[in-house]
Amino acid sequence: MLPERLSRGSVVALFAGLALLLLPFADLHVAGHDPWAAVGRMAQGVLRPDFAAIEQVGWSLVLTVAFAVAGVALGGTAGLALAPFYGNRIVRLTCVALRSVHELFWALLLMQALGIGALTGVLAIALPYAGIFAKVFAEQMEDADPRPSAVLPPGVDPLSRFLFARAPLMLPAMRTYSLYRVECGLRSSAVLGFVGLPTLGYQLETVFSEGDYGAASAILIIYVSLIATMRLWMRPHLVPLWVLLSGVVLTSLSSPPMGQGALLRFLTVDIVPAPLRNGEGLGAFLAWLWPLLTGQVIPGLAATLVVAQIALVLTGLVAVATSGLVVPSIAGRLGSLAGHLALVILRSIPEVMLAFVFLQILGPSMLPAVLALAIHNGAIIGHLLGREAEATGATLRRDAPRGLTLWAWELAPRLFGRFLALCLYRWEIILREAAVMGLLGVATLGFFVDGAVAELRLDRAVVLLVSAGVLTAGVDALSRALRRRIGADRARIQRDTSC
């Protein structure tokens, strides 16, 4: 049981101490043969991006946008339909289960039933996003003014009460959040290429495997530009057009023919544990489950927690170190512009992409995953804190100090609560991403999931994913409890950091 109130300093000390305790259990060695040589080759590629070498990237770019828009549209529609009923335990648990499984894991499973096609990519994004949208929309309903709903007759059903009394008040927040989810969807869509779908991630993995760092640099520049300019081309009044165009593009994407009843077999046979499928009884099921738990589930979850906890503390350090870089009164006008640009680039590149790049330099260990998680999430929090620090600094007295003195004595103390709340909210997200790092060869839970899928032991893969979902749900509940006890602003945090 947690106490009703917790000091913010004690929460920081708890997480820092836990990360230090886990350090001896983390594989953080450099396994690359010559990391500095790899850095040099990549630096040359960054300085000389080769756009001529990526003829196929145009179609991959179109598909990245199409998967993202279609997946977010479908997930948002489903989440909106579920939001009025989110108080129901079955609906809430269903949404928790959907959002606890990473998009890449959904894609791996769906490929076994639907093949590598448009529907697989759209559903891989839409399923977890439906659970996320339902949760956020439901909490936006709670935060909306209750007075219009109170004047409706008691017998009005929840859906009508939502449509006529809650939805009009929520529309501005819903529109802002939905556009933000499109940005998240672009990241999710890009990384689907790492499991075979023809998005930008597939192109990036291909050119990296060929050692063509100039082409890789060009792909990353195109991808970051896509994210950075999203607010210009994804305008609210153009959303229906983008959804329609995405549907047309994805309809033209050929899918491999699946056998008759493949989906039904997947749902009723493939994912059912082998002893139960064969009618062998509970004893045989437990004998099948125990080696899986001790040999894969527990080691995979433990490694995932180790990576996530160390990455969480490093995320906080990165956020503290970078948040002042975007404030003109601290870094100067040119320095703040450079800081903004650096943080936008780092927060735009998904953790999986960053980890993949670091793996080419550092070799296979937990270190690339920890660095990727810390840099990406630290850049997100640093950007948000810097934006608030800039607004806070504008209200200070005219003779306030500047530079590091301003940051240390004026801004940092005021933003400490917000900083801690943002880190706690990113905790669940970091854990999900740490699990999926196993698909790149890092020894987290995703490593065992990938192996089970490769061996077509989908029943084992489902058990592993269920265990990941339980762990994620538990961390989410603990994070919510901690945020309540330190007085975190739930609505603002979810609006800003939920991907």
Account of the protein in words:
By secondary structure, the protein is mainly α. The protein has 2 domains: 19-34 and 274-499, MetI-like fold (Orthogonal Bundle); 49-270, Orthogonal Bundle (MetI-like fold), CATH 1.10.3720.10. The chain has 23 helices and no strands. The chain has helices spanning 8-22, 35-47, 57-82, 89-100, 103-114, 118-143, 147-150, 158-191, 200-209, 213-228, 230-233, 239-251, 262-270, 274-277, 282-323, 328-331, 333-348, 351-362, 366-393, 403-436, 445-454, 458-485, 490-497. The longest helix is centred in the middle third of the chain and has 42 residues, at 282-323. The chain is globular. It starts with 7 loop residues before the first helix and ends with a helix. The model has no long low-confidence stretch (mean pLDDT 86). The chain crosses the membrane at residues 56-83, 104-127, 213-234, 241-262, 282-303, 310-331, 434-454, 460-482. InterPro entries: MetI-like_sf. It is a multi-pass membrane protein. It comes from Rubellimicrobium rubrum. It is found in: Cell membrane.
Q: Characteristics of this structure?
A:
mainly alpha, MetI-like fold, 2 domains, 499 residues, 23 helices
Question: What is this entry, summarized?
Answer:
It is a multi-pass membrane protein. This protein is mainly α and 499 residues long.
**Approximately how much helix is present in the residues?**
over 70%
Task: Please tell me the CATH architecture of the largest domain by its name.
Answer: Orthogonal Bundle
The 3D shape can be described as globular
Radius of gyration: 23 Å
Q: Distance between the terminal alpha carbons, to the nearest Å? A: 29 Å
Return residue spans where pLDDT drops below 50 for at least 5 consecutive residues. Answer: none
- How would you characterize the largest beta sheet? none
Transmembrane segments: 56-83, 104-127, 213-234, 241-262, 282-303, 310-331, 434-454, 460-482
Main location: membrane
Keywords: Cell membrane, Membrane, Transmembrane, Transmembrane helix, Transport
GO cellular component, one term: plasma membrane
